[in-house]
Automatic annotation (TrEMBL), chain A:
<dbReference type="Pfam" id="PF00005">
    <property type="entry name" value="ABC_tran"/>
</dbReference>
<dbReference type="InterPro" id="IPR050388">
    <property type="entry name" value="ABC_Ni/Peptide_Import"/>
</dbReference>
<dbReference type="InterPro" id="IPR027417">
    <property type="entry name" value="P-loop_NTPase"/>
</dbReference>
<dbReference type="InterPro" id="IPR003593">
    <property type="entry name" value="AAA+_ATPase"/>
</dbReference>
<keyword id="KW-0813">Transport</keyword>
<feature type="domain" description="ABC transporter">
    <location>
        <begin position="5"/>
        <end position="254"/>
    </location>
</feature>
<dbReference type="GO" id="GO:0005524">
    <property type="term" value="F:ATP binding"/>
</dbReference>
<comment type="similarity">
    <text>Belongs to the ABC transporter superfamily.</text>
</comment>
<protein>
    <submittedName>
        <fullName>Peptide/nickel transport system ATP-binding protein</fullName>
    </submittedName>
</protein>
UniProtKB/TrEMBL annotation, chain B:
<dbReference type="Pfam" id="PF00005">
    <property type="entry name" value="ABC_tran"/>
</dbReference>
<dbReference type="InterPro" id="IPR003439">
    <property type="entry name" value="ABC_transporter-like_ATP-bd"/>
</dbReference>
<comment type="subunit">
    <text>The complex is composed of two ATP-binding proteins (GsiA), two transmembrane proteins (GsiC and GsiD) and a solute-binding protein (GsiB).</text>
</comment>
<keyword id="KW-0067">ATP-binding</keyword>
<protein>
    <recommendedName>
        <fullName>Glutathione import ATP-binding protein GsiA</fullName>
        <ecNumber>7.4.2.10</ecNumber>
    </recommendedName>
</protein>
<dbReference type="InterPro" id="IPR003593">
    <property type="entry name" value="AAA+_ATPase"/>
</dbReference>
<keyword id="KW-0472">Membrane</keyword>
<keyword id="KW-1278">Translocase</keyword>
<comment type="function">
    <text>Part of the ABC transporter complex GsiABCD involved in glutathione import. Responsible for energy coupling to the transport system.</text>
</comment>
Length: 277, 263
C-alpha cells in the first residue's frame, strides 16, 4: 500500500516570552486510504498535528519535519501557491464548532459554491447544482431551503452537516476532522458520524479523526494513535483497544463514566513526566 | 419526606414557543437528581426557571417549602440555591481576578470573614491559594470550572443547580470535576439537580432522573433501571444507544455520489 500521507519527525514550536514551547515533538506516521484516529487530552498536540498537515499553523510557529509528504508532494517546501491549491481541494479539514467556523455573513449555499469555484472551473449554475447535491448527500432534507440560510439560522447538527458538505464538495483525498462532533448533542453526534462514515467509505478518502474521546474514536477508526505531551505514546488497532499497554491509554479509556459501571470515584488520569520523555 | 425542590405543572413560554409544558419534578433533600434530553428538550430551561432566569408562565415552584413567585428571588434563596453553568469560559468575568469573583457573592450577602472563606473554597475545589490572584485566561478549562464550583459553594448553599457542568471539558478533566462534585456533595450533604445530555454522566452522578423531550418529561426512572435496561420509552432507548458510541451499520454501501434523502 502506497502511503497517501507520510509524516516523519514532525515538530511544531511556538515562541513564547518564556522560551520555545514544543507543542508537537517528533510525530511520525503514515496514512493510506484508511481511518486513523488521533487521541489525547487538551494540550497533547493532536490538533496542532492536524493543522500542520493542513498548513494552518499560526505564522509565528515553526514547523519542521524530516518528511511531510502528501501523495509525493513535500508539503513544507512546496510554494504557497501549490499549497493553496491543495488546501480545500485535495486535503480538507472539518473543524469543531460550526458556530465559529462558518462565515456568519454568507449563506451556507454561497460558502459551498465558493469552495467549489475556488478549485474548479465551473459555471455558477453547475456549482449551485453540485452544492445542492452535496447538501442532499449529507442528508439535509430540504437542500434548496438550507442553501439560502445563514449559519445562525440552523442548528448545530445542521451546521456541521453543511460544513461536511463544504469540505467534501471538491472531492478531497484526505480529510482531517478535528473534533467534528464535540460541540453536538449525543444523538446528533451519531447522525453526523454515520454521514461522515458513509461518505468517507464511498469516496475512498483517507481520514484523520482528532478527538479527546478514545471510545468514540475507537468505534469509528481502524487505527488509533495516542498522543501525550506532543508525542505518540502508543499506536494500536482500534479493535485492540482493550489490550492497550500504555497506562496513559488505559487511563483515557477508563476515565469515562459508563452506564451500569458503579465506580466511585471515577479513576482519574495519571500524568507522569517520564511518559513525556 | 417532603421535597426540597418541588416543581408543579411549570410552563415557560417564549413568545409563541412553549419551552416547558406542564413539567413537574420533586427532588428530595440530599439526593442527586438528573435531567436528560437532547438540545431543545427544555432541561436547561427548567433549571434556569428555578434559579429565576426564565419567566414562568404557569405552575408553582417551591424550595424548602417556600413558594417562588415569578422571577423574583430574595437573598435567602440565593444563599440556599446556587448554580454552575456549562461553559466556564463564558461564566467567569474575563477581567476580574479569581479573588474578586469569589468576593462578589460574599459582598452581596454581607459576609464578614471573606478572607478565610475564599481560601477555604479554593482549597476545597483543589486549587490552592496560588490561583487566587490569577485571571480566568491564565487557567485551563478544568481549573475554571473548579473556580465556578468554588464560587457556587462559597455561600454554603444546600442546593446546587448544575447545567452541563462537564460538557465543555475533556474526557480526562471531566472525571476529575465529577469526582470533585461527588466529594463536595458527600462532605456538605448537598442536593444536586443536574442537567446533562450524556446518560453516562447522569447515571454516574444521580440516583433518579427524568428524561425530557420537547418541553415535557417523558419518563422518570432510577439509574439502576436505566443500567438494567428497564426502559419504557423509545426516546430514552435512543439516548441510551447514542451514549454507547458509534456503531457501524452492516448495510452495503451504495456506490455513487449522493443518496437523495434520509432513509
Amino acid at each position: 500500500m502506497s502511503a497517501l500521507l507520510t509524516v516523519e519527525d514532525l515538530r511544531v514550536c511556538f515562541p513564547t516570552r518564556t522560551g520555545m514551547v514544543e507543542a508537537v515533538r517528533g510525530v511520525s506516521f503514515a496514512l493510506g486510504r484508511e481511518r486513523l484516529g488521533i487521541v489525547g487530552e487538551s494540550g497533547s498536540g493532536k490538533s496542532q498535528t492536524g493543522r500542520a498537515i493542513m498548513g494552518l499553523t499560526p505564522p509565528q510557529a515553526q514547523v519542521t519535519a524530516r518528511t511531510l509528504s502528501f501523495d509525493g508532494i513535500e508539503l513544507l517546501s512546496a510554494p504557497p501557491k501549490l499549497r493553496r491549491s491543495l488546501r480545500g481541494k485535495r486535503i480538507a479539514m472539518i473543524l469543531q464548532d460550526p458556530k465559529y467556523s462558518l462565515n456568519p455573513v454568507m449563506s451556507i449555499g454561497r460558502q459551498i459554491v465558493e469552495t467549489l469555484r475556488e478549485h474548479e472551473d465551473v459555471s455558477g449554475a453547475e456549482a449551485r447544482e453540485r452544492a445542492l447535491e452535496m447538501l442532499a448527500a449529507v442528508q439535509i432534507r430540504d437542500p434548496k431551503r438550507v442553501f439560502g440560510l445563514y449559519p445562525h439560522e440552523v442548528s448545530g447538527g445542521m451546521g456541521q452537516r453543511a460544513m461536511i458538505a463544504m469540505m467534501l464538495v471538491a472531492g478531497p483525498e484526505l480529510l482531517i476532522a478535528d473534533e467534528p462532533t464535540s460541540a453536538l448533542d449525543v444523538t446528533v453526534q451519531l447522525e453526523v458520524l454515520s454521514i461522515l462514515d458513509k461518505l468517507v467509505a464511498e469516496r475512498g478518502m483517507g481520514l484523520i479523526f482528532v478527538s479527546h474521546d478514545l471510545r468514540l474514536v475507537s468505534s469509528f477508526c481502524d487505527r488509533v494513535l495516542v498522543m501525550y505531551a506532543g508525542r505518540i505514546v502508543e499506536e494500536l488497532a482500534a479493535s485492540d483497544l482493550a489490550n492497550a499497554k500504555h497506562p496513559y491509554t488505559q487511563g483515557l479509556f477508563n476515565c469515562m463514566p459508563v452506564i451500569g459501571a458503579d465506580r466511585h470515584p471515577l479513576p482519574v488520569l495519571e500524568r507522569k513526566p517520564e511518559w513525556a520523555l | 419526606m417532603s421535597a426540597i425542590v418541588s416543581v408543579e405543572n411549570l410552563s415557560v413560554v417564549f413568545d409563541d414557543f412553549t419551552a416547558l409544558d406542564n413539567v413537574s419534578i420533586d427532588v428530595f433533600a440530599g439526593e442527586s437528581f438528573g435531567l436528560v434530553g437532547e438540545s431543545g428538550s427544555g432541561k436547561s430551561t427548567l433549571l434556569r426557571s428555578i434559579a429565576g432566569l426564565a419567566p414562568p408562565a404557569g405552575g408553582t415552584m417551591r424550595i424548602t417549602g417556600r413558594e417562588l413567585r415569578g422571577r423574583d428571588r430574595d437573598k435567602a434563596f440565593y444563599r440556599a440555591v446556587q448554580m454552575v453553568f456549562q461553559d466556564p469560559y463564558g461564566s467567569l468575568h474575563p477581567r476580574q481576578t479569581i479573588d474578586r469573583q469569589l468576593m462578589e457573592p460574599l459582598a452581596i450577602h454581607g459576609a464578614r470573614d471573606g478572607e478565610r472563606r475564599i481560601l477555604k473554597a479554593l482549597d476545597e475545589v483543589g486549587l490552592g491559594s496560588g490561583f487566587r490572584f490569577r485571571y480566568p485566561h491564565q487557567l485551563s478549562g478544568g481549573q475554571r470550572q473548579r473556580v465556578a464550583i468554588a464560587r457556587a459553594l462559597i455561600l454554603e448553599p444546600s442546593i446546587l443547580l448544575l447545567d452541563e457542568p462537564t460538557s465543555a471539558l475533556d474526557a480526562s478533566v471531566q472525571a476529575e470535576v465529577l469526582n470533585l462534585l461527588e466529594q463536595v456533595r458527600h462532605d456538605r450533604k448537598l442536593t444536586f439537580v443536574m442537567v446533562s445530555h450524556d446518560l453516562g454522566v447522569v447515571t454516574h452522578m444521580c440516583d433518579r432522573l427524568a428524561v425530557m423531550q420537547g418541553g415535557r418529561v417523558v419518563e422518570r426512572l432510577t439509574s439502576d433501571d436505566l443500567a438494567g435496561g428497564r426502559i419504557d420509552e423509545d426516546y430514552t432507548r435512543n439516548l441510551m444507544v447514542a451514549s454507547k458510541g458509534f456503531r457501524r451499520h452492516a448495510e452495503p454501501i451504495t456506490q455513487g455520489a449522493a443518496s437523495p434523502s434520509r432513509p
